[in-house]
Amino acid sequence: MPIKTAAEYFSQGETFEVLFWVGCAGSYDARAQKVSRAFAEILTKAEIKFAILGNEEKCTGDPARRAGNEFLFQILALQNIETLNQYQVKKIVCTCPHCFNTIANEYPELGGKYEVMHHSQYLEELLSLGKIKVKEDRSTESVTYHDSCYLGRVNGMYEAPRQVIDHLKLEIREMKRSRQNGLCCGAGGAQMFKEDEKGEKRINEERIEDAIETQSAIVVSNCPFCMTMLQDGIKAKEKQEQMMVYDLSEMVLHKMR
Amino acid sequence: MLQILFFSILSGLVFYIAYGRFLQIYKNISLGITENEKHNSITGLKNMILFALGQKKMFNKPVSGIFHLFIYLAFALTQIELLEILMDGFTGEHRIFAHALGSFYNFLINSIEILSFLAFISTFIFLYRRNILKLIRFQKPEMKGWPSLDANLILMGEILLIAGIFVMNSSDQILQNLDPQHYPSTGKLYISSFIGASLLGQFPQDWLIWLERMGWWLHLFVIYGFILYLPFSKHLHIFLAFPNAYLSNQDSRGKMSNIPVIENEARSMVGLSPKEIQDQTEIFGAADIFHLTKRTLIGAYSCTECGRCTAVCPANLTGKKLSPRKIVMDIRDRMEEISKQPKPNGECNDGKNLFDYISREEIYACTSCNACVEACPVLINPLEPILALRRYDILMNSGGPSEWMSMFNSLENTQSVWQIPETRDSWTKS
Ligand code: SF4
Ligand code: SF4
């Protein structure tokens, strides 16, 4: 799939509509890479002129900041802002809620002001505008949806991803803890990058029990870290035969005409 | 005359002691730092009306929401009766508002009676939930000892308070017929006339007079007791929930506060010119009360120890040591400890700080999921101090879990959270 970088657009004297912010997980984690490819494919099919930063992208600094390393956060953030400003980026779409949150809420104070969207918002918009067309077959499938903390409670976005699922004509079976009461997957606040403190259980196992209760075969996530955590939870419960985790964009791509 | 004198001396003493204690709390809160971010007072007022006055979040748990509402409304309305009691006490009058308010007085006292009755039932339900049903959120380790006793004492105080009202009103109902000269008519009080008729009907007049006074004094003593007790109790939330909601965070939940000094250091590292800054502090994050915001400190005094935050905390739910309520309670305890120390130059020199209360194990278990922030009915934010403590431990102590050190290393070396040899765009090539 030919994906152009901002630098390539720039050197060809062209402009692009949105910048796809890929994030560390989307760039390096094997499972999340698939999501990046799915999302890029949707954008290509929908004929959106988009760019990535490619090797000029750096971690947004979210895990550094939440882990308390403010200095490292500042360095990463300032460098990213410089790059983004250099390419006169106006609009950014992220497939990771942590990247989304940091760029949307923390970069402005450091001089990085953009229109930032999470891909669930962006996909909702494209579906509503008819830029993405989905197959009409009304399937009987049902899915369950996991609210990531950084999209949900932190940024108040509970409905856009549900509307996307709605557009796909899929039924949502809500978990007993959802929306404001959603349970964390256990990865946020830089927990992804260390072992759990000692306890009775891992958080992702507690969460996957909610999902198992719904008896859906598919858990839809909107965050690469939730995805890993939920997948691990499924493995721990030995439910690999019954359940799969998909990102919202994978669900959309699957249903696209 | 003797009664007026006694009443006046007692009242003076109570208010004097309470004043000193409230002043201390004010001073403790002033130990915190003032933030210079924009605070919108309209939004602040809205939050106060919605969450403190309007109890909005209480109804996320309908059962405790409704019973708490009864107690709250009864408390609010009883203030009018309290005003009358104080004026009667200072003047030696009896039911000084009765004449002036006429039939409205009857309506008022009846409303107070009905709400007090509902509040009476509520206190028993609350006692039951805490002590017999043993709801999990009231049984966490941080609730051992004083916090549980505190809650029960308040509930029992409430029972006495309401008992006082009914003893006073029901004997008064009978006395109004026997001696209308001294006992102005309140009109029929639905609950007290019933109690009066069924329980006190056969009592001689001098017993009734005595009972009426006992009810009055009981009510007053419990109220004065509360005034003195409040500043030592989680019950302080009845006042501080208001300023706390007013001052609560209005910024995005996803934004951590900036540290200008570090920002400038980073700017020079990446070759940008430094910004002009006011705040030159060399202490980053928080190790003690002096490094926390005033907002956090008011929050600590506003905490009702309800445990709604802990009940939804993913770390706590899975058996980790972290409990957001405990963090908030620890901050309060530390403030109390500091206020007992001699402070030669503004700071405390007892050689302790918050880390003597809160362990690393607790602060590093937090996923910053904001469930505690969402859950708190009085808009306390337990996450802020947790992240501030982390900041301090990492930046000032070079502490932190070792896996994070390798994450920091790869962020520094490869600008990615993982140490990975591939190029960042390799995913586009397969
Ligand atoms: S933000 Fe931290 S303390 Fe609060 S509920 Fe989530 S994990 Fe617990
Ligand atoms: S912080 Fe809020 S939710 Fe937690 S115990 Fe205190 S009042 Fe309750």
Largest interchain contact: A-B, 72 and 65 residues
Oligomerization state of this entry? Answer: heterodimer
**Could you give the count of β-strands of chain A?**
8
Q: List low-confidence stretches of chain B.
A: none
* Fraction in beta strands of chain B: under 5%
Molecules bound to protein: iron/sulfur cluster
Mean pLDDT metric of chain A: 95
What percentage of amino acids of chain A are in beta strands? Answer: 5-15%
Helical fraction of chain B: 55-70%
Q: What is the average of the pLDDT values of chain B?
A: 92
Return the structural class of chain A: alpha/beta
Structure description:
The complex is a heterodimer of chains A (257) and B (430). Chain A has 257 residues and is α/β, with parallel strands linked by helices. Chain A has helices at 6-11, 23-28, 30-45, 62-66, 70-86, 97-106, 119-128, 159-167, 203-213, 224-236, 248-255, and strands at residues 18-21, 50-51, 91-94, 115-118, 142-145, 171-172, 218-221, 244-247. Chain A has a four-stranded parallel β-sheet. In chain A, strands 6-5-7-8 form a four-stranded parallel β-sheet, sandwiched between helices. In chain A, α3 packs across α11 (248-255), α7 (119-128) crosses α8 (159-167) and α9 (203-213) crosses α10 (224-236). The longest helix of chain A has 17 residues, at 70-86. Chain A is globular, with a radius of gyration of 18 Å. Chain B starts with a helix and ends in a 16-residue tail after the last helix. Chain B is mostly helical and 430 residues long. Chain B has 18 helices and no strands. Chain B is 62% helix and 0% strand. At the A-B interface, α2, α3, α4, α5 and α6 of A face α10, α13, α16, α17 and α18 of B. One iron/sulfur cluster binds next to α12 and α14 of chain B.
